[in-house]
Amino acid sequence: MSRKKIIAANWKMYKTPEQARQFMEEFVPLAAGHTRDEIVICPPFVDIAVVAEKASGTAIEVGAQNLYWEKEGAFTAEISAEMLTGAGCKWVILGHSERRQYFGETDDTVNRRLKVACEAGLAPIVCVGEVKEEREAGITEDVLRRQCARAFAGISARKAAKMAIAYEPVWAIGTGLTATPEMAAQAHALIRQEAASAFGDDYAKQLRILYGGSVKPENARDLLSQTEIDGALVGGASLKPDSFTKIVKW
Ligand code: PGA
After folding, report:
1. Is 134 designated active site?
2. Do the domain assignments include residue 90?
3. CATH number for the domain including 23?
4. Which of 47, 60, 62, 249 has the smallest C-beta neighbourhood within 10 Å, fewest atoms?
5. pLDDT-based confidence at 182, cuts 50/70/90?
């Protein structure tokens, strides 16, 4: 079965609304007519409005980088799923390793956010991946299985219909190191098995699993031409319209 690939930009904590507007003004014409892959831009919360406005009427979709699981209330600084859909988001990144590393995100909180994102009709991109010490200790498989199983707990295949996974080996994020296409393909196959045991074989066959970690114009084709790799989650190289366009046009 052929799965449409997703090329997603994770801008992290970069760009003011004005810089986001400038990016979109350059990027939209460069990406015009590109329908082979889905293009998703995940800016900081305050840039969502301007990115959504500039993306409207194009095939470019907008995502957030996180959400909080409560509907509303006294939760200073948090953002709900409905706020995101209302602002024009279709996607949301969940469980990024930087959230896990610096902001106390756990497999359990990823699961809570995932449930709410699915309920709200958002398409979640759930990030999993091993740190360097785990790869060196030979426990990558266990880590990926645990992260997936716990993230998926209590969620039905129907609810998770729009979910995608990003395999991001933490040692490859922002370091210039990438997993070899073979390493990535191996991890993706394992994640697909986990998805099959949680949601069934049919679900697993259509699940899109992205690779993330130092994806650049120079390595995009090698990675994206693998059948097991259904897209890319791009950090640093998504910040400039020309380099992100080169990746989109791998
Ligand atoms: P990078 O980040 O492309 O800068 O390595 C990827 C990510 O963290 O999503």
Report:
1. no
2. yes
3. 3.20.20.70
4. 249
5. confident
Residue 62 corresponds to which amino acid?
V
Sign of CA dihedral 25, 27, 30, 36: negative
Active-site choice (38, 98, 134, 168): 168
**pLDDT tens, position by position, 5-55:** 999 999 999 999 999 999 999 999 999 999 999 999 999 999 999 999 999
Among protein residues, the one whose CA lies closest to atom 9 of ligand 1: 235
When pLDDT is averaged across residues 71-82 and rounded to a whole number, the result is 98
Catalytic: 34? no
- Count of structural domains within the chain: 1
Of ligand 1's atoms, which has the minimum distance to the CA of residue 234? 3
Q: Residue with the nearest Cα to atom 2 of ligand 1?
A: 235
d(CA 164, CA 183) in angstroms, rounded, equals 19
